[in-house]
User: What shape does this take?
Amino acid sequence: TAIRDIISHKQADLKGRRILVTAGPTVEPIDPVRFISNRSSGLQGYAIAEALAARGAEVHLISGPVSLPTPPHVTRINVQTAQEMYEACLAHLPVDAAICVAAVSDWRADTIQAHKIKKKGDEAAPTLSLVENPDILATLSHAEQRPALVVGFAAETTHLQDYAQQKRQKKGCDWLLANDVSKHQFGGAENQVLFLTGSGVEPWPEMSKQDLAQHLADKIASFFHQEAP
Amino acid sequence: TAIRDIISHKQADLKGRRILVTAGPTVEPIDPVRFISNRSSGLQGYAIAEALAARGAEVHLISGPVSLPTPPHVTRINVQTAQEMYEACLAHLPVDAAICVAAVSDWRADTIQAHKIKKKGDEAAPTLSLVENPDILATLSHAEQRPALVVGFAAETTHLQDYAQQKRQKKGCDWLLANDVSKHQFGGAENQVLFLTGSGVEPWPEMSKQDLAQHLADKIASFFHQEAP
Assistant: This one.
């Protein structure tokens, strides 16, 4: 029964906490059939949502299009575009924590064509004008109803630690998990991150996305345990 | 046994025919994580490959990334980009028929960035320069080893019959199946097409993608039956 007690204690240690998790890619339409997207599988965000819900948190998962089942006891809200994800996140405030794992498109097409863009014989190929999407992580980090804990993810292909430190400061989030997607295939099953906080950088070893989710859930539970009166 | 005879006759009526089918979207990378693609599910192309193989044809299915199982007795070749699909198609010639169902990206990014493109603070969002991809349907229709039968698909959102007739002539294919993707959701389970040949236009009724595949397989079998000495 000692082990059972430990497990049930662990399972309950986020009870009463309302947590927002974003996951998957966003899809930015160009015209009725074409779009810009990215290789996010949603695996890491879904694993985190599952780990938090298993510990009793009330998890709201704002998800781009992925082919994954909704984890047990998780409320899932499906979105397509960054703008939709942004609005869904704001609509879910206040929350105790926001874990922004989604690979949100930085840009969308300036104009979404109502009809399929046609190839025009000898004319040059079109150029696609992009405009910047709203920054969900920065917005949540500076919101009037700011969550007590805001966590971001950064996928980089070069200058991992430099870019991640700059990103953490610029966005104003508390923690940032940065992974080098030139080493670990984006969308794959394994992950290896730098864990950045205001007080330093921890390199975490390579592990499965499930293990990383457990590890992060431990950190989140500790944060709220220390914060509690 | 009369019915059994009809079925086994039907099942064998494409025996000895080598047929190329393309299916699914292509994915055109922008950088290591971002890409341009389209909403093709691969359902129609896979249904056609399955119907042709069930009638004894030797089917080579050149497929963009989709989440569908390979149909029985079909040889599947996975590709990502239009350029890869183009090369795979040419490498499979000669064939008796080519059925081009894939939604091939007309354009790709002019330059694929080796590193993830960074958002640059106050600077304007980037513009994406596109270049035209090789035209697989036109190339097969004019190849030295031209298949006896070349069939294309056209997804349009407006001026369906006009655009389709222009497309059939411009590409040089024998038959073109044109569907209005503003009416029938692109990537969905149902389909409704205009069937265009050199001798006219047949509007086919709305039907499932499986039924459309059977209908087209009937036409293909008739074509080779009439062509045979």
Notes: Chain A has one domain: 2-107+128-227. Residues 2-107+128-227 of chain A form a domain with the Rossmann fold fold (CATH 3.40.50.10300).
